[in-house]
Amino acid sequence: MYEWFIDKLEIFPSKQYEFARLNMNYTVMSKRKLLQLVTEGHVDGWDDPRMPTISGLRRRGYTPKSIRDFCERIGVAKRENMIDLSLLEFCIREDLNKTAWRRMAVLDPIKLVITNYPEGQVEEMWSENNPEVEGGDGGRGIPFSSELWIEREDFMEEPPKKFFRLGIGLSVRLKSAYIVTCEGFDKDAEGNVTTVYCKYLPESKSGHDTSGVNVKGTIHWVSVPHAKTADVRLYDRLFQVDDPSNEDGDFKDYLNPNSLQILPDTYIEPDLANAIPGKGYQFIRKGYFTLDKNSTSDKLVFNRTVTLKDGWVKK
């Protein structure tokens, strides 16, 4: 019919080209189905960071460069095909690895007390913004004290043979700071470890290490008296199955119940209180994050853009 009109109207015979719609796994691309997710409250609007919309990707921390890179890699096809979401995640990791500033945040904290560090003393440790950039892309000072927050997973009561973090008698380097050796720990009434006790080597300061001691592990930390707090939102794939549109029954039955995990009052280094909206940050060893639009000076909220590695490969 289109060509019939062109012929009868005697207008320029433009050529039609038809291309297939882009489909990605673990999500839906149909506007009708996306509308259902929004109107029925399964997601927080069209810009929910789990949605495959430009506004959703932007809020999650995806950069224009990463999306263009993704589009160039997949090209344009005339047959419908399914694109692996891992490719989009690969593109944003490639971009943020070169541009995101490194910062320290402790998401599941326990306290570390350095018993031989002078009580009340505060040092400023220097750390680069991005070691992938020549010159480190500048840097910032991080306050260091005798009491620190560390990740719960960085300590084990009975560590296995190749555990290169903290356990009784084991040593690690605190990122951009000193080497510490674990000597003891406290537990609460439920048997959970609450505090780890260590001694530090004064001559092992990063950049000025004369201790001669080599350790295999490095862990991140945040000084207890200087820590700021933030809510951290860990986003994962919206659906549990590869192609929810082709499954039996209602596609919404396959929504991933763990696609959003909220961690309240996590501890972040002081510089993150001045996080720049729209900028990517790598929380060291934890993933890439960006400041959410609903953040306020009293309540910071960070969205995880993507993990450091593709965890779904193992799953």
Structural class: alpha/beta
What percent strand? 25-35%
Number of strands: 18
Q: What is the overall shape?
A: elongated
Order of helices and strands: HEHHHEHEEEEEEEEEEEEEEEE
Question: Can you name the CATH architecture of the largest domain?
Answer: Orthogonal Bundle
Unreliable segments of 5+ consecutive residues: none
Domains, number: 2
| Adjacency order of strands in the biggest sheet | 3-16-17-18-14-15-4
Mean pLDDT: 94
Give an account of the 3D structure:
With 315 residues, this protein is α/β, with parallel strands linked by helices. It folds into two domains: 1-101 and 227-315, Glutamyl-tRNA Synthetase, domain 2 (Orthogonal Bundle); 105-220, Ribosomal Protein L25, Chain P, CATH 2.40.240.10. The protein contains five helices and 18 strands. It has helices at 2-9, 31-39, 54-60, 64-74, 85-99; strands at 22-24, 81-83, 101-103, 105-106, 109-114, 123-128, 139-144, 147-151, 171-174, 179-187, 193-200, 218-219, 222-223, 228-235, 260-268, 280-283, 287-291, 300-306. The strands form four sheets. A seven-stranded mixed β-sheet has the order 3-16-17-18-14-15-4, with helices on one face. It has a seven-stranded mixed β-sheet with strand order 12-9-10-11-5-8-13, with no helix packed on it. The chain has a two-stranded parallel sheet with strand order 1-2. Strand 17 and strand 18 form a beta hairpin.
Task: Explain the layout of strands and helices.
Blueprint: H1 2-9, E1 22-24, H2 31-39, H3 54-60, H4 64-74, E2 81-83, H5 85-99, E3 101-103, E4 105-106, E5 109-114, E6 123-128, E7 139-144, E8 147-151, E9 171-174, E10 179-187, E11 193-200, E12 218-219, E13 222-223, E14 228-235, E15 260-268, E16 280-283, E17 287-291, E18 300-306
Parallel strand pairs: 1-2, 3-16, 5-11, 9-12, 14-18
Antiparallel strand pairs: 4-15, 5-8, 6-7, 8-13, 9-10, 10-11, 14-15, 16-17, 17-18
Helix pairs in contact: 4-5
